[in-house]
Amino acid sequence: MQRIEYVYSAHSAFAYIGSKRLMEICARHGVQLVHRPVLLSPVVEAQGSLPFRARTQAHVDYFFGREIERWAQYRHVPVVNFRPTHHDADYSLASGMIIALGDSGEQVDAMAHAVLQAHWQYDADLSDRAALRLIALTLGHDADALLAVAESEAIQQKLQENCVWAKERNIFGSPTYILDGDPYYGQDRLEILEHALANPFAPSGWTNPSVN
C-alpha cells in the first residue's frame, strides 16, 4: 500500500483548504495517510524561513486577504473572511487530540479535519478546552478522556518528535505531503500529488548551477 506522510499544523489555513481533497485522493487510490502534526514556527524557522510575526504587512495582507479566499472559493471550502481571532494561540493541545487517535485511520482523519475546520470556518480558539471538548464530543469521543490523553507527557513528546522529524526532512511549510520520500509543499500541489500516485516521479538529476 502506498502511503503519504502528511505534515501540517493544526491551525494551517491551507491544510484546511486541502483537507477534504487530500482525503478524497487517498480514498480513491487506496493510500494510507500518515498524520504528522507539528508546531509550525519552530519547523519553518529551522529552515531559515520567517515566522508570520516577522513578515511584512504586505505579505500578511496578501496571504490572509487574497490567497486564502481565492483557494477556498476554488475548493468550495467555507472560511472566515478575516485572520482568525486566536490564530497565534497555543495549539499544542489541539495537536495532541489528533495524535492521541493514532497516526492513520478514519478517526484521526476526522479529528484533523474538524480541528482545522473549527479554526478556519468557526473562528475557534484552539487553546480553549471548551472549544476542543465540543469538537471531541461532536465526533463521538469521550471528550474529557481524550483531552487527558492529549495533554499527557507521552503525547506532547510525540508532538515534539514530529517537529524534529520534520526539521530533519527540511520541511518549510504546512501542509507538506511526502510520497516515496518526495515532498509536495502546499495544497495547490494536490493534483500533481495525485498524478504521481499513478505516475511515479522520476527525477532528471537537475542540479542548481553554482553562482560565481
Structural topology:
Blueprint (H helix, E strand, L loop, with lengths): L2 E6 L4 H17 L2 E6 L2 H7 L10 H19 L16 H8 L6 H17 L6 H10 L4 H8 L2 H16 L7 E4 L2 E4 L4 H9 L14
Parallel strand pairs: 1-2
Antiparallel strand pairs: 1-3, 3-4
Helix pairs in contact: 1-3, 1-5, 2-8, 4-5, 4-7, 4-8, 5-6, 6-7
Would you give an account of this structure?
The protein is α+β, with helices and mostly antiparallel strands and 212 residues long. The chain has one domain (3-198): Glutaredoxin. The protein contains nine helices and four strands. It is globular, with a radius of gyration of 17 Å. The model has no long low-confidence stretch (mean pLDDT 92). It comes from Pseudahrensia aquimaris. Residues 4-198 form the DSBA-like thioredoxin domain. Keywords: Isomerase. This is 2-hydroxychromene-2-carboxylate isomerase. Its EC number is 5.99.1.4.
Give the beta-strand count.
4
CATH architecture: 3-Layer(aba) Sandwich
Largest sheet: 4 strands, mixed
Q: Cα distance, first to last residue? A: 46 Å
Q: Which band does the percent of strand residues land in?
A: 5-15%
CATH topology-level fold name = Glutaredoxin
Counted by DSSP, the helix tally is 9
Tally of domains:
1
The stretches of 5 or more residues where confidence is low (pLDDT under 50) are none
Arrangement of strands in the largest sheet: 2-1-3-4
Helical residues, percent: 40-55%
Overall shape: globular
Mean pLDDT value: 92
CATH C-level category:
Alpha Beta
CATH fourth-tier homologous superfamily: Glutaredoxin
Order of helices and strands: EHEHHHHHHHEEH
Rg measurement, Å: 17 Å
Structural class: alpha+beta
Family: Belongs to the GST superfamily. NadH family.
Protein name: 2-hydroxychromene-2-carboxylate isomerase
Domain DSBA-like thioredoxin: 4-198
InterPro entries: DSBA-like_thioredoxin_dom, GST_Kappa/NadH, HCCAis_GSTk, NahD-like, Thioredoxin-like_sf
